[in-house]
């Protein structure tokens, strides 16, 4: 059993006060800082890139869990590595050479993650499972915060957990995670829980510690 990690997604932070928001989730008990990068091409939304990520690197020592929703990703991996990413996750659907891209991340000295969209089967990563440090099961269609958890993701988590077996690989879930469904998610095998809107709603820093604790305790 790997320890449960809570990874608040700064996509739902107040971007006009991004540094303070990151400090607040750090102080509130976040284990990882989940950084959602969107290109308006792989997903129908644009967020921010390595320049913005690098700007907040100095305000926390917590690991940066960088979720690249971009295609192609390869040309940008070095920028995210240099900017302070600790885990770099790419989508299995984002390019034709997933194995090469995962190797490129590890060659940069970073942990390599692979993400699966809701319609992508676990079998898509069967042959690269020994090349990853983290598997990310999307429980919404990527592109936006605040969507509802897709229940089928629980079945996919169980399948991904079976594929991982005894390997030291984190199993992360992203999208629609709340204190109400966190228990079922953990029971299905996930140990890294991303949460955006359920932590940042209202953007009131005084609420963050309680919300992070509520997910963890669930
Ligand atoms: C979705 C992102 C998620 C998102 C999660 O494209 O990858 O990380 O911000 O937000 P919530 O928790 O609000 O679904
Ligand atoms: Zn994400």
Automatic annotation (TrEMBL):
MF annotations from Gene Ontology: D-ribulose-phosphate 3-epimerase activity
Protein residues bound to a divalent metal cation: 34, 36, 67, 174
Coiled-coil residue windows: none
Cofactor(s) needed: Co(2+); a divalent metal cation; Zn(2+); Mn(2+)
Cofactor binding annotation: Binds 1 divalent metal cation per subunit.
UniProt EC number: 5.1.3.1
Keyword set, alphabetical order: Carbohydrate metabolism, Isomerase, Metal-binding
Positions of the catalytic residues: 36 (proton acceptor), 174 (proton donor)
Cited InterPro entries: Aldolase_TIM, Ribul_P_3_epim, Ribul_P_3_epim-like, RibuloseP-bd_barrel
Metabolic or biological pathway, per its Swiss-Prot or TrEMBL entry: Carbohydrate degradation
Residues annotated as transmembrane: none
Catalysed reactions, as listed in the record: D-ribulose 5-phosphate = D-xylulose 5-phosphate
Residues at which substrate binds: 9, 67, 143-146, 174-176, 196-197
Superkingdom classification of source: Bacteria
EC main group: isomerase
HAMAP family in the record: RPE (MF_02227)
Family, as annotated: Belongs to the ribulose-phosphate 3-epimerase family.
Role description: Catalyzes the reversible epimerization of D-ribulose 5-phosphate to D-xylulose 5-phosphate.
Record-linked PANTHER family: RIBULOSE-5-PHOSPHATE-3-EPIMERASE
Protein name: Ribulose-phosphate 3-epimerase
Protein's organism: Devosia oryziradicis
Classification of source organism: Bacteria, Pseudomonadati, Pseudomonadota, Alphaproteobacteria, Hyphomicrobiales
Gene: rpe
């Amino acid at each position: 059993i790997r320890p449960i990690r809570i990874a608040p997604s700064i996509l739902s932070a107040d971007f006009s006060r991004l540094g303070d928001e990151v400090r607040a989730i750090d102080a509130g008990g976040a284990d990882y800082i989940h950084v959602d990068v969107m290109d308006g091409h792989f997903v129908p939304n644009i967020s921010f890139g390595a320049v913005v990520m690098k700007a907040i690197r100095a305000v926390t020592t917590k690991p940066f869990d960088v979720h690249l929703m971009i295609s192609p990703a390869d040309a940008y991996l070095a920028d995210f590595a240099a900017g302070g990413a600790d885990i770099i996750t790419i989508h299995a659907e984002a390019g034709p050479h997933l194995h090469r891209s995962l190797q490129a991340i590890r060659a940069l000295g970073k942990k390599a993650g692979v993400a699966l969209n809701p319609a992508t089967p676990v079998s898509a990563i069967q042959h690269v499972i020994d090349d990853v440090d983290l598997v990310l099961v999307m429980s919404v269609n990527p592109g936006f915060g605040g969507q509802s958890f897709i229940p089928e993701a629980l079945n996919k988590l169980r399948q991904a957990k079976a594929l991982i077996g005894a390997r030291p690989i984190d199993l992360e879930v992203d999208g629609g995670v709340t204190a109400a469904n966190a228990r079922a998610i953990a029971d299905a095998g996930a140990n890294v829980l991303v949460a955006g809107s359920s932590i940042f709603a209202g953007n009131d820093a005084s609420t963050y510690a309680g919300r992070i604790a509520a997910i963890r305790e669930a």
